[in-house]
């Protein structure tokens, strides 16, 4: 059995959680609780491009907001 997270020709979706973290997710697997599909399903390369474009701050949003507040 192959790993569904490593199939180059499979369809994927991009998921996002409440902390604005993103995940590349195989389209054949149900979206887990706490995550929302924000792109796809589509080609792995297209989904990775979407992640690179939209997930530019890798910190959880709570951390980013706290650091922004204390630096004012």
From TrEMBL:
Xref: SMART domains: MbtH
GO BP annotations, alphabetical order: siderophore biosynthetic process
Pfam name, any one: MbtH
InterPro entries: MbtH-like_dom (IPR005153), MbtH-like_sf (IPR038020), MLP_fam (IPR037407)
Positions of the MbtH-like domain: 3-53
Gene3D superfamilies for this protein: Structural Genomics, Unknown Function 30-nov-00 1gh9 Mol_id (3.90.820.10)
GO cellular component terms given for this protein: cytosol
Protein's name in the database: MbtH family protein
Record organism: Actinospica durhamensis
Lineage, broadest ranks: Bacteria, Bacillati, Actinomycetota, Actinomycetes, Catenulisporales
